[in-house]
Specification:
With about 400 residues, the protein is of the alpha/beta class. α1 crosses α9. The relative contact order is 0.13. Strands 12-11-10-13-14-15-16 form a 7-stranded mixed beta sheet, sandwiched between helices. The chain has 2 domains: about 210 residues, Rossmann fold; about 160 residues, 3-Layer(aba) Sandwich (Rossmann fold). It contains 11 helices and 16 strands.
């Protein structure tokens, strides 16, 4: 999207970006994109509407120091009065630590969410508008009640709105219906399909995105909508697995999977893309890849918005070495250890420019509908790489 679209649109307020410690890396990239675009803009700062429009950085200095007991407080070290504030955080960044009674604790999603609330509380209603960009939606896996249990995600959404948050933006929500918890508030869930397609075309020169050469695979019924969109916009077929579980047992908090049953056309000789919202332990992805190879699939690409790798990388290393998996793609929306970035089979999908576009567009109070539906951009990149004819 051209930034020239915003030349005649007055910003909603002075832009301020709060990248909490969990998102400092991607926050810095986002900041550089916006600063570069606005430096090249023809908007004149002589106009009262564009005062402080062009800056070297829009990052707000904040911190969440902790006491020896492990308790913390949020501090904003500069004025945010009247600013259009965008708070970016990664609740999955387990690399950060703090001391608790002399012991080292790794920060959990609960800790990151608490820090978000501390910064919102520190703003004390002085910001003109607050938008929270939380790529991995806090407690999104606890989105529905199947027993006498808490609905943590819905409670968190209510809490943020009640604290004065105007908009919540997340990526690839585990179940987007959770937005029904706050029907009168703005909640956007963004799909990174365009970035996945672009990364594949850029990093795999011999890829052929045609019905004869490729299929999109949903590893379970929950990911079907993602696979349908991916397959539909590229113009290839899709298939899906459903997990047959043993509901008489509970292992590590869930019913164990007995088998993966496949529904779809023949995958023999085709490259396949297995797409899902997250890689947690990775067991399900490995099982699906094994089933696809048994059906004589060619190269297997694993594409997941969030690469958590809760059990490490050993399984994926072995899967790559044995030829089971060809490439693994995840985004930088959550913490990526250096070990992952150095893997030969890993493709990093950078989302910083996309987030910068969202922030810059919203700050100008312009529509983001074109960003939420990337069909046109996908077709352009497919033409660019010769996948479809003009």
């Amino acid at each position: 999207m051209s930034q020239n679209n915003f030349l005649d649109v007055i910003p909603y307020g002075d832009l301020g970006i709060v990248a909490l410690e969990s998102s400092r890396s991607i926050g810095a990239k986002v900041d550089r994109y916006i600063s570069s675009w606005r430096t090249e803009s023809e908007n004149s700062e002589e106009s009262i509407h564009f005062t402080s429009y062009k800056k070297d950085s829009y990052l707000i200095d904040t911190t969440c120091p902790r006491f020896g007991s492990g308790e913390a407080k949020g501090i904003i070290n500069e004025s945010i009065r009247g600013k259009d504030l965008y708070i970016l955080l990664d609740v999955c960044n387990h690399s950060l630590t703090y001391k608790l009674c002399g012991q080292i604790n790794h920060m959990s999603p609960d800790d990151h969410y608490a820090d978000l609330k501390r910064i919102i509380a520190a703003a004390s209603g002085k910001a003109r508008r607050i938008t929270v960009i939380m790529p991995f939606l806090y407690e999104s896996r606890q989105h529905r009640r199947s027993a006498r249990e808490s609905l943590d995600c819905a409670l968190a959404l209510h809490e943020l709105i009640n604290m004065g948050v105007d908009t919540i933006i997340t990526f690839d929500a585990h179940d987007p219906r959770v937005q029904n918890a706050i029907p009168l508030s703005t909640f956007e869930t963004v799909q990174p399909t365009y970035q996945f397609i672009k990364a594949m075309l850029k990093n795999v020169p011999d890829i052929q995105m045609t019905p004869e050469k490729m299929m999109i695979i949903s590893p379970d019924e929950g990911a079907t909508s993602r696979a349908i969109y991916f397959a539909g916009v590229v113009g290839v077929n899709m298939g899906m697995f459903y997990k047959r579980r043993d509901y008489t047992k509970i292992v590590e908090g869930r019913n164990p999977i007995v088998a993966h049953e496949f529904l779809g056309a023949d995958v023999e000789g085709k490259d396949v893309v297995v797409i899902d919202d997250m890689i947690s332990s990775g067991e399900s992805m490995i099982d699906v890849a094994t089933e696809l190879k048994r059906r004589k699939a060619n190269r297997i690409f694993v594409a997941s918005t969030f690469g958590l790798f809760t059990n490490g990388f050993e399984k994926f290393d072995k899967a790559y070495e044995s030829g089971l998996i060809y490439r693994v793609m995840t985004t930088n929306l959550v913490y990526q250890p250096e070990e992952l970035l150095s893997k030969e089979y890993y493709i990093n999908v950078d989302m910083s420019k996309y987030i910068a576009l969202l922030i810059n567009t919203l700050n100008h109070d312009a529509s983001i509908s074109g960003l939420l539906d990337p069909s046109e951009r996908i077709h352009k990149v497919l033409k660019k790489y010769g996948q479809i004819e003009d």
